[in-house]
Amino acid sequence: MDLGLNGKTALVMASSRGLGKAIAMKLSEEGANIMLASRSEDALKTAAEEIRNKTNGNVHYTVCDITNPTSIKETVQAAVEAFGPVDILVNNAGGPPAGGFDNFEDDAWQKAFELNLLSFVRATREVLPHMRKQGGGRILNIASSSIKEPIDGLILSNTFRNGIAGLAKSLATELGKDKILVNTLGPGRIGTDRLTELDQIGASKAGMTLEEIRASKAVSIPLGRYGQPEEFANIAVFLCSGANSYVTGQALLVDGGLIRAL
């Protein structure tokens, strides 16, 4: 299947590692021009070199603090200057701290809001003029399986990831006339550094090893294992592509069947 991504410009936020990097890798394999963005220049340089070496693709990077509106503006401008108007925006951000309601004061809620919801709003706002001018585009928001079923001990994520899903649903309605498709994709238990961090917290609380906690979690997944970032990225790339011409406003999970909600 021709995904129609050759020569397209993709801006992937929080893409120096994890799911963002995996998505950037797959987009590059399909011929898209890639602008990586995250806070760490060293990590970005390493990721860009790895993607170029594997795909022989056109990959640039720029340092971006996604909680800073000026930094987001500069990141979008850097993508435009490097490749031309942005065709694809992948909104992504690291997860907020784990914990329950009693663990957080206002400052933690504000930081999680700016990181995990307002950054998506700001990046979307910056790319829309380019997408409208060229007659369409794709926006993909990376969230969590908590958009379908809250995860115990992740109240900040549960709150703001669901805000992302609501934002995307509304945007899909508003932007359909502009041929801009907007979707939300939620990972289940995908093998990233973030999941390792959460598993280590769970293992410590349960008095188990990391391997034991992972085995106990895998039992609840119908496919019997954690997913790989590349598997998640395959779905993300389809939703960002020209092959996806009629899926918008959807909140989808890549979770091996973990979440039982309809």
Automatic annotation (TrEMBL):
<dbReference type="InterPro" id="IPR036291">
    <property type="entry name" value="NAD(P)-bd_dom_sf"/>
</dbReference>
<dbReference type="Pfam" id="PF13561">
    <property type="entry name" value="adh_short_C2"/>
</dbReference>
<comment type="similarity">
    <text>Belongs to the short-chain dehydrogenases/reductases (SDR) family.</text>
</comment>
<dbReference type="InterPro" id="IPR050259">
    <property type="entry name" value="SDR"/>
</dbReference>
<dbReference type="GO" id="GO:0008206">
    <property type="term" value="P:bile acid metabolic process"/>
</dbReference>
<dbReference type="InterPro" id="IPR002347">
    <property type="entry name" value="SDR_fam"/>
</dbReference>
<protein>
    <submittedName>
        <fullName>3-oxoacyl-ACP reductase</fullName>
    </submittedName>
</protein>
<dbReference type="GO" id="GO:0016491">
    <property type="term" value="F:oxidoreductase activity"/>
</dbReference>
<keyword id="KW-0560">Oxidoreductase</keyword>
